[in-house]
Amino acid sequence: MESTNKPRLVTSFEKIDKSVQEQIKLEYPEGFSQHLISFMNKDGEKISALRFETDEKIYLIKMSKMDAIQLIEDDDDYDDDGNLTDEAREEYGDESEVDSDSFEDDFDEV
Q1: How many domains in the chain?
Q2: Is residue 109 part of a domain?
Q3: Exposure of 66 in the CB half-sphere (CA atoms within 13 A)
Q4: CB 29 within 8 A of CB 104
Q5: Between β-strands 36-40 and 108-109, what pairing exists: parallel, antiparallel or unpaired?
Q6: Which residues share a beta bridge with 61?
Q7: Per the domain annotation, does 86 fall within a domain?
Q8: Tens of pLDDT along the chain (110 residues)?
Q9: Strand-pair category, 36-40 with 46-53
Q10: Would you say residue 35 lies in a domain?
């Protein structure tokens, strides 16, 4: 596992820049709910989140499984089966290089 000094942020999907949201959709074209991880925050509370890494930052995007399902249901970029549409894939361009294999728990809450 490679050590990194990237900023780590815990945030919500709505607070993330639109271009990062698009990268996340490309990385998880079949939705988020099956990719959630759980961890204990600094206050000892169990949190579920989607981990996403860019060249600049590592994000933990707080969401429950129900939140993840609802996000996809409400998003026009996903079809009725919860899959990213071909139109959205073409619009966002599938150029994201993401490493979601490693996880560290020293994130900053945003």
Answers
A1: 1
A2: no
A3: 0
A4: no
A5: unpaired
A6: 11, 50
A7: yes
A8: 455 689 999 999 999 999 999 999 999 999 999 999 998 888 999 999 999 999 999 999 999 999 999 999 999 999 999 999 999 999 988 544 444 444 444 555 65
A9: antiparallel
A10: yes
